[in-house]
């Protein structure tokens, strides 16, 4: 697959913002996990790190499923993309909640990591989105 120039100039900007949110989620979540690991407890730090990974997977799957949906809805009627929404769309859109629920259950029940720390790790996506949005706002004002 080769990269092509986006038809809409805003597409490149949106793709960069999406990538920025993804890496900020990981960076902020893991930074918090390291601080908590050494300041509070190693189990709480591990819980935050696992929650951060779950938040990142959740974001990636949401981003990919919405990308598939946009491709299908904007495709020309006679193109191969117009055949319909692929099955992976439904798995990535709904399965992410199942994955999060199962992983949280296993982590809390079998590994006895604090539930609150895993939930704090899941909040890393919100932190990444806020910091990424603040960057976009400050970059546009310059």
Give the gist of this structure.
With 142 residues, the protein is an all-alpha fold. The chain is built from 5 helices and no strands. Helix 1 runs antiparallel to helix 2.
Largest sheet: none
Distance between the termini: 35 Å
Secondary structure: helix percent: over 70%
Low-confidence stretches: 1-5
DSSP strand count: 0
Number of helices: 5
What structural class do you assign from the helix and strand content?
A: mainly alpha
Question: In the residues, how many domains can be counted?
Answer: 1
Strand content: under 5%
What string gives the helices and strands in order? HHHHH
Rg for CA atoms: 18 Å
- Which outline best applies? flat
Average pLDDT:
85
Please tell me about this protein's structure:
With 142 residues, the chain is mainly α. It has one domain (18-141). The protein is built from five helices and no strands. Residues 1-5 have low confidence and may be disordered.
Characteristics of this structure?
142 residues; mainly alpha; 5 helices; disordered N terminus
